Amino acid sequence: MYEVEVKVRADHATVRERLRELGARSLGAVTQEDFYYDAPHRDFAETDEALRVRREADEEGTAEVVTYKGPLVEEESKTRKEHETVVGDGDTVDSLLSALGFEAAATVHKERERYELDGYLVVLDSVTGLGEFVEVEIKAEEDAVESARDGAYDVLRDLGLDPDEQVRTSYLGLLLRDDHE
């Protein structure tokens, strides 16, 4: 399964209003902390991969998920193969990864509002140190990636956003780049 995602910088107030006008369904808000790791056997920055443990909290509690994201598979979006699973204790996963030689690399903190629109997940992210972004994403089989991406572009346009302003760099990459500029 592939995660097809397009992301742009955008003012959330304007997008929220447009989501209401379009009848998007609110899926609630969460706080996310993403803990990223460097691998001992290859440079994820060079291979464009990511390994993270995400701690997500909402009014109902906290969940933790381990995710591996493969390299980008196309130029037109942030589409990549993704594997993830819920874990019972992120601290134990951290200890396990450390024992295997993985090193904590960085943490990304964000406040995320989720909406469903036309079968797509639309998220409004406020990322500490970076600002406001809108992501449109959907899961797709390999043979449906192009049509899923085109649909995500349509959702962006419906929200009054320009797919040509897409940011293909991850939040982690943006934060690390900002640290070195």
User: Reading side by side through the largest sheet, how are the strands ordered?
Assistant: 1-5-4-3-2-6-7-8
Distance between the termini: 35 Å
Q: What's the count of strands?
A: 8
Could you estimate the helical fraction of the residues in percent?
25-40%
Total DSSP helices: 5
Structural class: alpha+beta
Overall 3D geometry? globular
Q: Could you spell the SSE succession in H and E letters?
A: EHEHEEEHEEEHH
Q: What radius of gyration results from the CA coordinates? A: 16 Å
Overall pLDDT: 93
Q: Tell me about the biggest sheet?
A: 8 strands, antiparallel, barrel
Which range does the strand content fall in? Answer: over 45%
Low-confidence stretches: none
Protein topology:
Elements: E1 2-9, H1 12-21, E2 25-38, H2 44-47, E3 50-58, E4 61-72, E5 80-87, H3 90-99, E6 103-117, E7 120-127, E8 131-140, H4 145-158, H5 171-179
Antiparallel strand pairs: 1-5, 1-8, 2-3, 2-6, 3-4, 4-5, 6-7, 7-8
Description:
Helix content is 26%, strand content 46%. It is an alpha+beta fold and 181 residues long. The radius of gyration is 16 Å and the shape is globular. The mean pLDDT is 93.
In short:
This protein has five helices and eight strands. It has 181 residues and is α+β, with helices and mostly antiparallel strands.
Write a concise keyword list for the protein shown above.
globular, alpha+beta, eight-stranded antiparallel β-barrel, 181 residues, single chain, 5 helices
